[in-house]
Amino acid sequence: MADEQKPTAENMTMLQGFEWYVPADGRHWNRLEKHVPQLKAWGIDNIWIPPACKASSNQGNGYDVYDLYDLGEFDQKGSVGTKWGTKDELMKLCDTAKKNSVGLYFDAVLNHKFAADRKEKCQAIEVDPENRNKEVSEQYEIEAWVGYDFPGRGGKYSALKYHWYHFSGVDFNAKNDKTAIYKIVGDKSQGWAEDGDVDSEKGNYDFLMGSDLDYSHPEVEKDVLAWGNWLAENVPLKGIRFDAIKHYSEDFLRKFITMLDETYGQGWFFVGEFWKDSLDDMTRYLERMGRKFSLFDAPLVYNFSQISKASGGDLRKVFDDTLVSVMPVNAVTLVMNHDTQPYQALEAPVEGWFKPLAHALILLRGEGYPCIWYGDLYGIKGEHPFPPSCGGALPKLALARKLYAYGKQADYFDYATCLGWVRYGTWDRGYGCAVVMSNAGPGEKRMHVGEMHAGEVWTDVLGWSDRQVTIDQDGFGVFVCGQTSVSVFVNQDADGREKFAEKFDDNIYEE
Known about the structure:
With 511 residues, this protein is α/β, with parallel strands linked by helices.
């Protein structure tokens, strides 16, 4: 008796559920909660939510973290709620997400703190900003903003108050109003993290910003590990995105995720921000983390950006030296995020005309775990607004992934400015799809989709091409796309085709 065939695993897609300029009106959790059912219907399975911990003010995006244990519950730094809303509203979002089988990933900012409650005197040495191992002053006393009492919380959840010896460095001396990078020293301080425990850029990249936490101090390690347990027990999550992992102890982070994996880890997902155009550094980091971890594929974003800015760039090289090409299981693929958006860019963003092609490359192929960005899905508010990308077709690309991008993949990467590939489907998800794109003139590819589809008529689910492709008796079809465009062909009678006629509501700010 033949073994029973196993159901094909469903394709998963992540949404980064915010952008830098979301209005600071404390209503973001409410807006997201309202849109969860629609997001699920269009193929979004997990949402990476913004940093939910109390920031330096209710205008802060949370990367200026003040108190890990305040999720919008205590009156601190000028308000009870964060920029995103209150803890009660966050929990309502969690409840709606759970009811709709949408997972939430928490954005954990564990490298530093901001907005200390008071100054403390400590000993420090100035270092060269470009080589933090090079000391450029004698040891002397500074006044640093490193005293954290969390008075609004009053010791609830954690009694620890932070002092100068819980930090390895700061960038401001209040004694003389001087900005520099100061390595804190003393009998209770270890200075920078050991070589190899943080990234070696700038000699030792332990210090990034604010009051830099020292994970060699046992009280810091104990408190943040306890926070991880507290978070997992109190907020129904499916994973964590870790901010700025180049800058704090790799040993600590490994201990943190091992604890969560062993205690709560049924299906938990961990991804880190290691924003560096160095595939070697990224793969070494993943090996040291035991591969129970993922990274955002920064080199892929660099490739997208470079090709989008070139005239007739070579699309065949789009995956060269990318994480998804060598460690696809550990790669989170993306086109944009809050750091690459215009006017907030750490690096040059991807040009708008190329975004449909880039999204097809991350959503409709078999490798990597794709992450769509809120700014591309809903558009951007604020001083530099722009509308949803891909001419509004991004939800359709996500839906095409959910319904049809399964099975064996055959690539037609034979022409520099026109790529194509076919997904053949599986025994229980048999429709498959054919994708063709061009970053120059109109594109055309003769591709094999399978003899089992002979006689079928395939059309573009995006509606950008009006070509009807009849599959011949040998299973081939001639698929086309427009100039600097992409088309996704599927059997016109495939289950789910009617969903592409519906309209995705991208007006998330509607009252």
